[in-house]
Amino acid sequence: MEKLFHLKEHGTNVRTEIIAGLTTFLTMAYIIFLNPTVIGQSNPAFAAAGYEGAMADSAVFTATCIGAALGTWLIGWLSNYPMAQAPGLGLNAVFAYTLCIGFGLSPNAALAAVFIGGVFFILLTVTGARKAIVEAIPFSLKKAISAGIGLFIALIGFSNAGIVIGQSQGAATAVDLASFTEPSVILALVGLIIMTILVIQKVPGAIFVGMIITAVLGNICQFVFNIPMGITTPTSWVPHVDFSMFGKCFVGFPELFSAPIASIIAVLITLLMVDMFDTIGTLIGAADKAGYLDENGNLPKIERAMLADAIATSAGAVFGTSTVTTYVESTSGIAAGGRTGLTSTVTGLCFAFALVLSPLLGFVPTAATAPVLIIVGIMMCSALKDIDWGDLEVAFPCFFTVVGMPFFYSITDGIAFGFLSFIIVKLARAKFKEVHPLMYVISGLFILMYVITGLQALGVV
Predict the structure, then answer these.
(1) Which residues make beta-bridge pairs with 240?
(2) Chain centroid to CA 53: how far?
(3) 446: enclosing H helix or E strand
(4) What would the pLDDT profile of 32-51 be if each residue is shown by its tens digit?
């Protein structure tokens, strides 16, 4: 262990690292139950949109566990950071709402796009281009990206819980507060209160524990008092490792590339931009909370950490899940004393063993997982404190980045509006040299994406 992870050098020991690894797993274990409700058959938006052919929840569950285990091991072994990875919140929303519902892709074709994104990121990482892109983004925008993703995730949580409901076109308001007549909405509110209390009290694994308590209450309501909570019982108690989506990303290549060239470019540019900046934002957010960023907001050994998520993204797509990224919940293990990749090794083992929990999947209703998104969103908004809102040159692009994601219901558009407004502000002040050349290139790609999408909507291409 000493040779592999240099424990003494980092002031830690095997016992501390094991405890830290278990803590990290308990803190982020919710994703194995939550991911199926975002990209699997349980996603209410799929049914509302008339989307057919969504992936089975059991297949998403299996792919989530495997993708999380592989990604966590990779980042621990390559960078020796005590961080963990799993299919990203926000990134899985892009998979479901942008690729599948927005572009109309089947899960196979969407997974093919994710696989291509992972391979592209591997190339960018090994050539050093990805690190250069990270360092080209202003510190304030890095913080805004993290906070914006948090607001977007929270909005999805409120929507999944039924607390916030959409209004019909032409209504006085775009969204509204629910009437609280649905039992599942009340359960979600109770779950949110429970998780809030546990997090405030700093209970180890507070989010996971809160989710389980909420799920237990939901099961009691449904099976004891006959109050419907959307819970389904398993057909078998034998753990079912569902590999039905394994390799389907390769089956999706013909569909992806049979679309009009404009659509293909729009899909790939959208996915690449979102994957790149969501991953960068989340990694920076986790590293920031862990205190690993230097005075310029950069992360030492970031190229190794990004290589881990790039490889894990392609591997995860092969098994059947959306983009794998670093989790801010990794900081829970760091707070417990984790300092090396041994923490990640333990967390990865826990995700691998979690495969035997598949029979319990149906007992965790959406009302128990939706509050998790809200709590995580709150945590990610802590980055707002590091933005100088008194400086309008900083405030304008950061504002568009932060509010654009939930208002436009798109992480991509939030980042795009933030980057473009940053350049507009700097050009207006004739501060051309304060804009990194790569920012011009990235903004140009965003403009190209919008032009292609607009021309496609007009039927020109």
Answers:
(1) none
(2) 22
(3) helix 437-457
(4) 888 998 999 888 888 877 88
Secondary structure E strands in 129-274: 164-166, 175-177
| CB 279, CB 37: distance < 8 Å | no
Q: Encoding tokens for residue 301?
A: 């050994």
Give CA–CA dist 359/22, Å, rounded: 22
What's at 39, amino acid-wise? I
Distance, in Å, from the CA atom of 233 to the CA atom of 236, rounded to the nearest integer, reads 9
Q: How far apart are CA 117 and CA 334, in angstroms?
A: 30
Instruction: Give the Cα separation of 303 and 62 in Å (integer).
Output: 28
Handedness of CA 323, 379, 143, 147 (dihedral sign): positive
Degrees to nearest 5, angle at CA 449 with 298 and 124: 40
Element (H, E) at 86: strand 85-87
Under 8 Å between Cβ of 306 and 121: yes
CA end-to-end span of the chain, whole Å? 58
Give the Cα separation of 44 and 159 in Å (integer): 10
Please give the DSSP secondary-structure letter assigned to residue 383.
G
Structure token digits, residue 229? 């909570």
Of the chain, the percentage scoring pLDDT greater than 70 comes to 89
Spatial contact of 85 and 75, defined as CB atoms under 8 Å apart:
yes
pTM, full prediction: 0.72
Nearest to 153 by CA among 38, 28, 280, 285: 38
pLDDT tens for each residue of 380-434: 788 899 899 999 999 999 999 999 988 887 777 888 899 999 999 999 999 988 8
Alpha carbons 230 and 366: distance in angstroms, whole number: 8
User: Please, are residues 311 and 173 in contact by the beta-carbon 8 Å criterion?
Assistant: no
Residue 9 CB: number of other CB atoms within 10 A?
A: 11
Which two structure tokens, joined as six digits, stand for 321? 């899940």
What distance in Å separates the CA atoms of residue 297 and residue 387, rounded to the nearest whole number?
Answer: 12
Tell me if 245 sits within 8 A of 317, measured CB to CB: no
Round to whole Å and give the CA distance between 34 and 285: 21
Distance in angstroms (rounded) separating the CA atoms of residues 325 and 274: 12
> What stretch of H or E contains 325?
strand 324-326
- Which residue type sits at 390? G
**How many other C-beta atoms can be found within 10 angstroms of the C-beta atom of residue 459?**
6
CA distances 205 to 24, 285, 304, Å, are 8, 19, 28
Question: In the structure encoding, which two tokens stand for residue 350, read together?
Answer: 């826990």
